[in-house]
Amino acid sequence: MGESPVNILLVEDEEAHAELVRRAFEARGDRVQLIIADRLSKAREQIKSGALPDLIIADWRLPDGEGMELLSSNSSGARIPVVIMTSHGNEKVAVEAMKLGALDYIVKSEATLADMPHIAERALREWLYFTERQRVEKALRENEERFRLLAENARDLIYRYRVLPTPCYEYVSPSVTAITGYTPDEHYANPSLRFEIVHPDDRPLLASLQQSRLAFDEPLVLRWYHKNGSLIWIEQRNVPVYDEAGQLLAIEGVARDITAHKQTEEALRRRNRELALLNRAALAFGSTLDLDQVLATVLEEVNHLLGVLASSVWLIDPETSQLICRQATGPQSEIVRGWRLESGQGLVGWVARQGESLVVSNAATDTRHIQAVDQHTGLQLRSFLSVPLRAHQGVIGVLQVMDTQTDRFSSNDLTLVELLAATAAIAIENARMFTEEKARVTALADALAQQQELDRMKDAFVQNVSHELRTPLTIAYGYVALLNSGELGELQEIQREPVMVVARRLKLLTELVDDLKTILEADTQQIQTEAVNLSEIVRKLVVDFQVAAEKAGLTLHTDVEPDLPAALGDSTHLHRVLDNLLSNALKFTPAGGQISVRLRQAEQNLVMEVADTGIGIPEDKLDRVFERFYQVDGRMSRRYGGTGLGLALVKEVVESNGGTVKVTSRPGQGSTFTVTLPVASSM
């Protein structure tokens, strides 16, 4: 009977019969614990004790009752399998025993009692099968109840459609009414309804379920017609039921309403398309700064987005405040292009003045619409969508789209055009600014060309004048020198002073011509630089100016670092630079003052400083002292002389030699001019 011990309660009042049974079990050697009770009451006490037997073998007739009474449940409610024995075969008793739930009914004999282990084994096996079947049946009933409860309350549609032998619905959940508007009874009454409510284009897909097993691999997405006529999206997941021959018997499945999901998907796809178009429009707008091309691109993108009959761009004329149709597309657009409207006139005028978008579903009933537009174009325009074009200074125009259908534009169209208009306004403003700036640049270029030509003519004039003046000045200065020498005869005392005045003026004119020539060379010629001994130039010029400084009551001294490298520059030009700086210092330093010339090296540069304790330069004039012909004070030119070219020559020559010059000064305390030139070896 297996490995586990089996408890068997034998209820038998005849000792001989009980002994035969006991011996039979012992002879079998099974792991059986046999409990013997000779009364019905004892058997009941044994059961009540809690040690429930696995099997009861009970005699039908007992001194205190019938063994069949043990067929009822015990106090715990658990049922125990019972085999009934009787000494005399009785069909009526056997039937009654089996009805009450006995597993077996045997007639006692020596053979049956000896075979009791097999009878018990068979009874236990049948009881195991019986209880397992009851468990399965109970589970099935519970599952069916749960399924029905789920199906009856599910939002999804659950169904079973029989294909063979006669097509019909075997089950349709109540949710079908909420999804399709049809009741389950309508589906039961009309099996073809499952095809009739499907969109004609999707019916072949549904029919494929009965044609190919592969059709069940993926869910079906179908369009169904609701009972009210609206179109809904349904996702079906189907499971086939086949017979042993492989024929399709039925289709079980679940259908779900995915209309909201599909609408969301479609809205998302539409939004992605719109964003892609807006992005393409932005790229197109940025690809050109030509205003007409930008406007044409704007309207091209509008037509592509909305598929409208016509569109136009109106811009505000800053001078007249009128609206001008700068660009238009669609039938008769050449008639509209160039039209002018007064501020506030028509739909575009209203939008431009109010600064608000406007959607008109039927212009025939809107008094703001100019009916003459329809008359001139021959178009019965009805739907209008007008959006202001805004730039940083305010509304600059209006973007308008039109169609002959009424109620053509939705709120989504409005949002889309407003987004496009925001980008277009920037592109239009940029193109307009570019056009205006281009005109200004052209005007400036023309003015610059004229100025350059004037500068060239001026320089040519100065160069010609310098060249023409130098020869007669040289001759005149030579004759004055000849007069002063006495070779032409001794001058009378009264003649000497005028001759000296003429000599000084001639010398001043000659220096002026030389300064002009040097400046022009620095401006117009390639400077031929070379290694220049700047220390030697400083020493020689200081010696030349020493006598003049002493006559003026000034102290002139130098501070030159030893073993300085050569500077890079033009020797003649650098000589004139230092000459002009020393001349200025002598000229503007009162008697008793000091003039210092310092020369040192700073990394890869030579730094030359000319400092004085003179009258100084006002701070607000420092930036202009290097301009040509500039005089800090006109009265000073009369007092000290000079042309205003000296410092201009210094700056232009130094910079043409690759250096820099700067000045620091305090009125009444003097000035310091600092010249920096590159070392020859550093270039």
> What is the helix fraction of residues, given as a range?
40-55%
| Large-scale geometry | elongated
Strand content: 15-25%
Strands across the major sheet, in which order? 15-14-13-18-17-16
| Unreliable sequence segments | 637-641
How many helices does DSSP assign? 20
Mean pLDDT: 81
Structural class: alpha+beta
Tell me the Rg in angstroms: 61 Å
Number of strands: 25
Largest sheet: 6 strands, antiparallel
Distance, first to last CA: 116 Å
Compose a concise summary of this entry.
With 683 residues, the protein is an alpha+beta fold.
Overview of the structural elements:
By secondary structure, the chain is α+β, with helices and mostly antiparallel strands. The strands form six sheets. It has a six-stranded antiparallel β-sheet, with helices on both faces. Strands 2-1-3-6-7 form a five-stranded parallel β-sheet, sandwiched between helices. Residues 637-641 have low confidence and may be disordered. The chain contains 20 helices and 25 strands.
Descriptive terms for the model:
5-stranded parallel sheet, single chain, 6-stranded antiparallel sheet, alpha+beta, 683 residues
Write the layout of secondary structure elements.
Blueprint: E1 6-11, H1 15-28, E2 32-37, H2 40-48, E3 55-59, E4 61-62, E5 65-66, E6 82-86, H3 91-100, E7 104-107, H4 110-114, H5 116-153, E8 157-162, E9 168-172, H6 175-180, H7 184-189, H8 193-196, H9 203-207, E10 220-225, E11 231-242, E12 248-257, H10 259-286, H11 291-306, E13 310-316, E14 323-329, H12 333-336, E15 340-341, H13 346-354, E16 358-360, H14 371-377, E17 383-391, E18 394-403, H15 411-485, H16 493-524, E19 530-532, H17 534-551, E20 555-560, E21 567-569, H18 571-587, E22 594-602, E23 605-612, H19 634-640, H20 646-656, E24 660-666, E25 670-678
Parallel strand pairs: 1-2, 1-3, 3-6, 6-7, 20-22
Antiparallel strand pairs: 4-5, 8-9, 8-12, 10-11, 11-12, 13-14, 13-18, 14-15, 16-17, 17-18, 19-21, 22-23, 23-25, 24-25
Helix pairs in contact: 10-11, 10-15, 11-15, 15-16, 16-20, 17-18, 18-20
